[in-house]
Amino acid sequence: MNTHILSAPGELFLGSDAATALAQGARRFSSGAKAVRFAMEQAAPVSLHGALLKIGGQTLGPDQIRTLHRQMEAVGQARRTHQ
Questions:
Q1: How far apart are the first and last CA of the chain?
Q2: Would you give the DSSP letter of residue 63?
């Protein structure tokens, strides 16, 4: 699992597309894990279409966020979702 991504602070952008997500601005999280859990477990599913997670110099898209969440589910660090 990508522990360096999950433990570092990050900025999560949510929107129906990337341009909308960036225009709406970021939510800041103390860890990437918290951002991933919020995106997958609390945010509206449509807002994941343009989701971006910026951590350090990396930018992760919707598919990468979903993959991280599945990895977190596998080790019991996240709730199971049906998205």
A1: 20
A2: H
> What's this model's pTM, rounded to 2 decimal places?
0.86
Per-residue pLDDT of the chain (83 residues), as tens digits, is 567 788 899 999 999 999 999 999 999 999 999 999 999 999 999 999 999 999 988 999 999 999 999 888 887 766 666 54
**Helix or strand run (H / E) with residue 60:** strand 58-60
Contact 40, 78 (CB under 8 A): yes
Q: Are strands 52-55 and 10-13 parallel, antiparallel or unpaired?
A: antiparallel
- How far apart CA 44 and CA 55 sit, in angstroms, is 22
Q: What is the DSSP letter of 32?
A: H
Instruction: Tell me the C-alpha to C-alpha distance, in Å, between residue 54 and each of 9, 27, 29, 39, 46.
Output: 9, 10, 10, 13, 19
